Amino acid sequence: MSCFARRDGLCTDQVLPKDPKARTRTRSERTAQAREAAVDPTFTEAVGQLEEAFHAQLRDLISMLNMSTHLEPNLASLCARLDFNHYYV
Fold it and tell me: What is the mean pLDDT of each run of 10 residues along the chain (89 residues)?
């Protein structure tokens, strides 16, 4: 579904109204929606689960790349840049 087809007003690629008052009102509405979503327990739990899944997949990717560095020397450089502070490994 395209962002322009959504009716909830949460898409960032929608154009804000030209009228300054309408623009302010639209921004206020979007800010209120974002704040409500941020404190919604189901939203924060879903974001937490996505974050955990992302980190797990990134750790797996870096591990697989590290195992293949003997085949391709540029992979060592890529791994070093992906995990420059050794957060994932």
Answer: 48 71 90 89 91 92 83 80 77
